[in-house]
Amino acid sequence: MNIGNLIIDTLKEEVVPAMGCTEPVAVALACAKVKELIDYDTINNIEVLVGPNIYKNGLAVGIPNTNEVGLYISAALGITGGKSEKDLRVLEGLTEEDVQLANELLDSGKLSLDIKDTKEKIYIEANIDTNKGSAKVVIQGRHNKFVFIEKQGEVILDAKEENGQSSNSNNVLYNMKISDIIKEIEKIPYEDISFMLDGLEMNEKVSECGLSERKGMGVGYSFKENMDKGILSNDIANTAMMMTAAASDARMSGICLSVMSSNGSGNNGLTAILPIAAYRKKFNVDDERLAKALAISHIMNSYTKYYIGRLSALCACGVAAGTGAGVAIAWLMGANDNQIDGVIKNMIANTSGMICDGAKVGCALKLATSASSAVQSALLAMNNCIVPARNGIVAETAEDTIKNLKTLSVEGMSNADSCILKIMKQMQTKAHA
To answer: Which family does it belong to (predicted)?
Structure first.
């Protein structure tokens, strides 16, 4: 097997554009697909069921082309204006009429959305019943992966994965030494990996939007104001923090711009890319090294999430995407294998306690922390300042440290998601009381 080709294929599969937070977007995608299966005149009812992690991550995030938040409106928009061929850009190009019709659909009571009792991290089921028949679709494993399609009682596709098997379960990359993967990326010809630069341009544009005017919480905008005043220094860590937070501010508020996602998450894409963009602002980096650094960051994000899960009780921006960015920055600085290992150990020692309590405007704070920690971890490792083995969950190697992180995520925090979701739902209920 050619490892270089496998890396390129993995990047093309996992690094894709998305408009809006990927959880509500995936719900819209499922609804768009199911409505396209039936040539109906009137809808009797639509039932949408989502896994707990999808519900948690879609509850409080802004939806592009609307002034609203959440999964209900995104499901309705999938029905009224979504086109499944746009994939994770399914909410792109919606009209005011589409939004009005979506709200009318919600007001009619014909659309219901509830939590599915499943251990699947990514699970979305959409059922439609109309005057011309019914249909059902299921997305599972990845935010845009249809594993079941049924039309008029006839099963067209049935590729459901059992026992939470990841679509990456047979990818040999995730059993390789990280240093060996990086060496393989170094060998890839520039023309085969230059597409990585598209994500840099895309995510920088979103960041610039969050810096040009206050959006969401205005975290990145506030950092910029303090840097302009001289209260914060204009160094690489603060620049990374500012740029990444500003992009999250814009995205979580529902801006109508696509971001380049990473391993199914737009915020992961922002965190994996923008600290590297901040490094480029301070140091000259040619396009080939920049493209390979971005590839390292995305693959490192995917590598870590292979173990902790695509959706987790842990904040993947902190423990996975931030780790990828830190490794890529250290690589750009000429790190050796031990220093690359050290970045990973430093990041996991620092950010492993960061929980994921859903996608929301407050994510900008976590992305700021992740981006700053990525730079700090790289700089410390370059000075051979590395958390030693057997300090907490840090092991002898980076690979074993990531496996310890998996144990923490899968076993240690098995009840954390349901607890976080319980708290969020209680607050939602009180807010509408």
So the answer is: Belongs to the UPF0597 family.
